[in-house]
């Protein structure tokens, strides 16, 4: 039953998919991160279905790319985008670590958050309009991969503070086992990506791991560790990096 509750909590927290009620008790929180990637699986399925069958409707290139842009936000409710925007404000402040952490908690969006959001959606929309064939499938896998890496980071990276979502899940998670499960899920999706297309898969994995390394260095240096907002920043940048890598590889090869 605790695994079912962990599954429900993961989807209730990180998606807008209706879920039955589950108590947020310590026992039920232990394996939440292990089910986090499966939200990416739902996004990837919808993304792949639209990307594959939209050509049969048919629709124009702008509507095609617009729906590919909206699908991840519609499923998650924009919870990770909030982290991207808050982090953009904090990084652009050039303040101390303590002040940056305070900015992350500020509910108001600053100018740099708005700029970062516009740039992000323009890039996503533009590269999405170039997706075709196996590239659609590879980006769909990327939603699962990004959440595997994000969840693993919660179990392995230092937390910047003792409060907040990242700290809460890190505290209640069975770190050792959750980390192993997430690592196994990462290996599984990596194998699927490489088997689907070695070139696109390799480029996607390389891009995701590069962002993960950047995430670790940046979070420790600028904030003293990760937070829930920084996790959202990583997730959005990881998925965009995968998208860019897939489109670039498709044009080169």
What does this structure look like?
The protein has one domain (43-252). It is built from 13 helices and no strands. Helix content is 79%, strand content 0%. The chain is an all-alpha fold. The longest helix has 26 residues, at 198-223. It is globular and about 50 Å long.
Summarize the topology.
Elements (H helix, E strand, L loop, with lengths): L1 H13 L11 H4 L2 H4 L1 H17 L7 H16 L2 H14 L4 H9 L5 H18 L5 H23 L8 H8 L2 H22 L1 H26 L4 H25 L1
Helix pairs in contact: 4-5, 4-9, 5-8, 6-7, 6-8, 6-13, 8-13, 9-11, 9-12, 9-13, 11-12, 12-13
Q: What class do helices, strands and sheet pairing give?
A: mainly alpha
Please report the distance between the alpha carbons of the first and last residues. Answer: 48 Å
**What is the count of DSSP helices, taking H or I runs of 4+ residues?**
13
Radius of gyration: 18 Å
Question: How much helix is in the residues?
Answer: over 70%
Which segments are poorly predicted (pLDDT under 50) over 5 or more consecutive residues? none
Mean pLDDT: 88
Largest sheet: none
Q: Give the overall shape.
A: globular
Task: List its salient traits.
single chain; 79% helix
Short description:
With 253 residues, this protein is an all-alpha fold. The chain has helices spanning 2-14, 26-29, 32-35, 37-53, 61-76, 79-92, 97-105, 111-128, 134-156, 165-172, 175-196, 198-223, 228-252.
